[in-house]
Amino acid sequence: MTVSESKPRDPVPGEAEAREQAETAARSQMLERLATTLGGNATAKAVYGDPVQQGDITVIPVASVRFGFGGGEGSGEKAAERSRGGGGGGGAMAKPIGYIEISNGTAVYKPIRDPLVDIWLPMAIAVLGATAPRAIRKLRTLRHP
Q: Quick one: DSSP state of residue 29?
């Protein structure tokens, strides 16, 4: 979101700067409140819900939650006009990484495995291991006929 304004110069020296500083402070406070509110709500519970209980077993979701927020503003003068603009944005991301299982008075963390690491990486290593000797032999025959 971007906001732009154009106003004629203020005739009283110093008044425009004081007003601009007050407006900047108000915008900064609003951005800080917004970031605090959004950051406080970026939790595993907000994404995956409350712990689940079935009989004597309780499962608590665990997530990696990331949150970022930024903003900026600027001003400039040209001819007899003063202009200002600003903008901001933010976002949050949550990824399940595991769960805590509580049963019989014992808590155990159980990670959710990444299929890339568990399946694709070993497959890639196996294919590389199977094809590398043939490729090396081929390169040697090309160098020394």
A: H
> Rounded to whole angstroms, how far apart are CA atoms 23 and 10?
15
The residue written with tokens 């110093």 in the block is 14
- Is the model's pLDDT at 7 over the cut of 60? no
Query: What is the sign of the dihedral through the CA atoms of 136, 140, 142 and 145?
Result: negative
Average pLDDT, the chain: 80
Measured CA to CA, the distance from residue 133 to residue 145 in angstroms comes to: 18
Model confidence over 32-87: pLDDT tens digits?
787 777 667 777 777 778 899 999 999 999 988 887 777 777 777 776 777 777 77
Compute the distance between CA of residue 100 and CA of residue 61 in angstroms, rounded to an integer. Answer: 7
CA distance 114 to 116: 5
| Domain locations along the chain | 2-112, 113-145
Strand 81-103 to 57-78 pairing? antiparallel
Residue 1 has pLDDT above 70, yes or no: no
